[in-house]
Structures are given as structure tokens and as C-alpha cells.
Model the fold of this input.
Amino acid sequence: MPLSVASQPEGPTSYTLKTQRSSKRAIQRAKASPAEDLRLLVRLEPDAPTWDKDAYAIRRAVADQSEIPLHRVPAATQTKTGWAIKPTDAPTRDLLLAKEASWSSTLGASKVDRHDVWHTYVVRNCPRRLFSLTGESIDVPEAAKEEVLTQTAQQPVDIQVIHVARGNGASVEKMALVVSFLRRVERRWRLFWSKPLCHQGEEKE
Done:
């Protein structure tokens, strides 16, 4: 009596489908998370000797002064304020920052900054004056830093006053603040008793 052999259904297996779905999710995550910008922005003094130098000379000077191979500094681009130095990876960027004093003076730099994108939020109707239970005046900028950290679980990189509106008395004076972070705040939040909830402004570099 011949043995019957079960036929395999044509088409993708469950393993193949799972693999395809995993690949799609990985692609979506990659698109949602752009690569980190590793550039270092070098602001030159007006009389710096490197304004008219070529990119190779800049890269060579930075690499030599930092005691690293040239291939770890693959690009340098001239900007309106100086140069943008591009390292190969985050560890190289951190090493260049650690040795900034060695190479920045060679370039004639007045300042070196990471290329960070700030996520800014506008806080409207924020109190201009704060008082303790005993009536003592509280430093609003310092209190704002502490309260922002409390409400967002993130340390702000910058807080600026953009508008002050005065009412009939000191108790109703309000002001608007712009609070900036290195990462987007994932939840809605307010500062002190401000209304409405804070909304995100334009991202800036």
C-alpha cells in the first residue's frame, strides 16, 4: 500500500511572514530615527589664520593635534562662522571635545560646539513673580529650571523670556518663556499653573 505524502501549501511560511514583518518594522524605526549629527562647529576669531585654508589642512591639523588617525576625521566644511568638523563616530567626537584645547588654538577658534538640534516649547501665562508661604520672593528663573525638570523629567538646555504682560497689579503679571531641550518631550506638560499646556515651537540648531 503506497504511503501518502502530505503536500506542502504553496506561498510564504509563517516564519517568512514574521521575518518580513520584522524587516519592515526595522526599516520604519530607522526612518523614524535619523542618524545623529556628529559635527563639531568651530567658530573662528576674525583674524584666525585658517579662514582661507583647505579642508584637508584643517582635518590634518585636528587629527594630528588630537593624536588620532586622519581617517577618523573624514570631512571638514567651511561655514559662515568657521568650520564644521565631521568625525567618524560618537567616540571620536567625544575624544575631539576632550582634546579641544590642543587643536582649537591651532585653528584660531574662539568656540567649539556640538551640532545639536534643540526642541523648543513655548510656555505662556507663566507667573512673573513667585512667593513662598512666608512671603519671601522666589527667584523665578531658578525655580523654572527646577520645575521644568520636575514636570518633564528632562534637564532644559536653555530658558528665555520672550514676553512680559503686566496686569493691574503685581499678582497678575505674566510672562512667556521659551524652554529648549535636546530631546523631544513625549508628554503634555505645563509650568507652574500656566494655561494652556505648553506647545512645541520650531526646532532650531
